[in-house]
Write a structure and sequence with these properties.
By secondary structure, the protein is of the alpha+beta class. The protein has two helices and four strands; from the N terminus they run αββββα. It starts with 5 loop residues before the first helix and ends in a 14-residue tail after the last helix.
Amino acid sequence: MTHVRDELLAVLRCPVTKASLVQDGDELLSTVAGPEGRPLRYRIADDIPLLIVPEKLTDTAASAGPADPATPETTDVP
């Protein structure tokens, strides 16, 4: 389980409710209920809290679609 330092938690805020966050396992949890009446949850990936509004995270993933196989991911530089 990833542990977010207390100093970082002291300054992080939920992007929707502007409330403080607490760690709950591998997620951060808003201390105030969001628009749907329940606290919002944010993943922690590779020790980085992903404070992306949940709707935006879903919209981004859906609109990204599969990568174009004709476009190289990296460029080799001699």
